[in-house]
Specification:
heterodimer; A: alpha+beta; Uridine Diphospho-n-acetylenolpyruvylglucosamine Reductase, domain 2; Uridine Diphospho-n-acetylenolpyruvylglucosamine Reductase, domain 3; Enolase-like, domain 1; 3 domains; five-stranded antiparallel β-sheet; four-stranded antiparallel β-sheet; 12 helices; B: alpha+beta; Ubiquitin-like (UB roll); DNA polymerase, domain 1; 2 domains; five-stranded mixed β-sheet; globular
Chain lengths: 276, 155
């Protein structure tokens, strides 16, 4: 058994004090990645700072700004929140595809993006919805688009001692259809081999792909062909994704398979959201 | 040095105050400190569901929760389902439908099913597959498990 300290925080001020108290201090929310990582030797904490009880991190609301999802909100809460199902379908579907029901009762949206796996099933949806990440530190708050938050595998824009406070799906919402389509080895409890989020509005579209590059990426060439070039042949548009991605071969799939399946999933996503 | 924290919680309806070792999983705490051996240890990485318990009524993998996180919560384990020596309807249905061979996954299956029935009293096959997608049965009793769950709602 690992030995470390544990502090259950009452407020953010206390959390920041603990977070800067030394090296190897980890914030704990859902803990589903952290627990597995500690057991596998990936993390060796000296102190865990439990922030999941903080009321301001449990916020899940819709207001004039859009939908705000606090850092302690679980993936089941995200997947079942009516405004998300209605206005941010890729996120509802992506959240629902993570792990299993029991995992999603603990795992949080913020944790999923802080773990910064290129295959994170909520990340591509957040790219497709132009989500904003609100960060909070001991001195200041700052916000950034999701695309600036992801830096590389396991790397985010978070500075030492800083926390994700919440994720915002900004208004105006895209008035169209959205979907998240995932290819994985098993129906659940598996990371995606490739995950594609498509959000349309009118005849325009935003597309993001997971597990095909060091971070999730936008399928910008596909978007350009449709949004600027007026391309209506979805198969032809989807084939342009090869220019946007740089997949690797790993235990979930080969580089070639990922190129192929990314194209197929984008075509299906376009058919589902923009019509055949 | 092993650090301990005092935690207050409810287990199967009884209020308890115990010392929990920091770093111990809820799974180990249930088995070794509370001496409730019904909850099983399988993969220890949240993939098999053998350790499923209800925390504030919701199913969680107890191998992915720390014992100290139990503070202020309500815990239900498989031992908490029978009342006055009588098995819960769901437990009886698992026996009647032979919904296991070795039985190792059964406590986790039953706890996940119990939570499903609380949110969907008449689940479809799809609902069951979805709710139990994180519970593996290596004997492959899935068909009988679905039948047992559906039968338990009819009596």
């Amino acid at each position: 058994m690992l030995t470390y300290d544990y502090v259950k925080c009452e407020n953010l001020k206390q959390a920041f004090e603990q977070l800067k108290s030394g090296e190897q201090v980890f914030p704990l929310a859902g803990g589903t990645d952290l627990m597995v990582g500690m057991r596998g030797g990936k993390f060796a904490p000296r102190l865990l700072v439990d922030i999941k009880g903080l009321e301001e991190l449990q916020v899940l609301k819709e207001d004039d700004a859009g939908i705000t999802i606090g850092a302690a909100v679980t993936l089941n809460q995200v997947a079942l929140f009516e405004p998300i199902i209605k206005h941010a379908a890729p996120l509802a579907e992506g959240a629902h595809s993570v792990g299993s029901y029991a995992i999603r009762n603990r795992a949080t949206l913020a944790g999923n993006i802080c773990n910064a796996s290129p295959a994170a099933d909520t990340a591509a949806p957040l790219y497709s919805l132009a989500a904003v990440i609100n960060l909070v530190g001991p001195e200041q708050k700052r916000s950034m688009p999701i695309e600036e938050f992801f830096i590389g595998p396991g790397k985010t824009a978070l500075k030492k001692g800083e926390l994700v406070h919440s994720v915002l799906i900004p208004k105006p919402y895209p008035q169209g259809k959205g979907t998240y389509i995932k290819a994985s080895r098993t129906g659940s409890v598996d990371l995606s081999t490739v995950g594609v989020a498509v959000q349309s509005w009118g005849d325009r579209v935003r597309i993001a792909v997971g597990a095909v590059a060091p971070t999730p990426v936008r399928a910008l060439q596909v978007e350009k062909a449709i949004n600027e070039g007026g391309e209506k042949d979805w198969a032809k548009a989807a084939s342009l994704v090869h220019e946007d991605i740089s997949p690797i071969t790993d235990l979930r799939g080969s580089r070639e398979y990922r190129y192929h399946i990314a194209e197929v999933l984008i075509r299906r996503g376009l058919e589902q959201t923009m019509g055949v | 040095m092993t650090k301990k924290i005092t935690i207050n919680f409810t287990v199967n309806g009884d209020r308890e105050t115990r010392e929990a070792i920091v770093g111990q999983t809820l799974l180990k705490f249930i088995r070794e400190e509370l001496n409730l051996k019904g909850t099983k240890e399988g993969c220890e990485i949240g993939e098999c569901g053998a350790c499923t318990v209800l925390l504030d009524g919701k199913p969680v993998n107890s191998c992915l929760v720390l014992a100290v996180e139990l503070d202020g919560k309500e815990l239900t384990t498989i031992e908490g389902l029978s009342k006055n020596g009588e098995l819960d309807k769901l437990q009886q249905a698992f026996i009647d439908h032979a919904a296991f061979q070795c039985g190792y996954c059964t406590p986790g299956m039953i706890m996940a099913s119990k939570a499903l029935l609380q949110r969907k009293p008449n689940p479809t096959d799809q609902d069951i597959n979805e709710a139990l997608s994180g519970n593996l049965c290596r004997c492959g009793a899935y068909q009988e498990i679905r039948e047992a769950i559906k039968a338990s709602t009819k009596k």
